[in-house]
Specification:
single chain; alpha+beta; Glycoprotein, Type 4 Pilin; three-stranded antiparallel beta sheet; 3 helices
């Protein structure tokens, strides 16, 4: 048999559901977001500086690789290459070229740009640009 107990609610008694609710207020959420924003503002310049230093090191390494390949080409061919493509593709003007390329692929600078190459006063010059400033292989030594 089913029995029901009827009880009357006391108006001075709080609802049990409201006591068990938990969560964060809008103000607490805004404070947390402000703290996260302040931390990001402090850390972002340091992260960008580290990334720029890493890109500069990568550029220096790429310039060194190209310079070594130019030196190898110069030893084998008795001349300085006129373009960087001569380091990765056979040069008809050089009978001693290869058999393997001096560079399988011409590397890019640390920011993903191609190097500019020219022969100036009988010596090879690699250039790239970062934030409007020209960087050469002579600067990197």
């Amino acid at each position: 048999m089913l029995q029901f107990k009827l009880t009357q609610k006391n108006p001075n008694q709080k609802n049990n559901n409201s006591l068990n609710q938990s969560g964060m207020t809008l103000m607490e959420i805004m404070i947390v977001l402000a703290i996260i924003g302040a931390l990001m503002a402090m850390l972002l310049p340091q992260i960008q500086g580290a990334m720029n230093r890493a890109s500069m090191k990568e550029t220096k390494i790429a310039m060194s690789q190209i310079t070594q390949a130019i030196n190898g080409y110069q030893i084998d061919c008795q001349k300085i290459p006129t373009t960087l493509d001569a380091l990765s593709k056979p040069d008809a003007d050089c009978p001693n070229w290869g058999p393997d390329p001096y560079l399988k692929k011409i590397p890019k600078d640390g920011w993903g740009h191609d190097f500019t190459y020219e022969v100036s006063n009988g010596s090879p010059l690699l250039k790239t640009t970062y934030k409007g400033k020209e960087i050469t292989n002579e600067d990197m030594n």
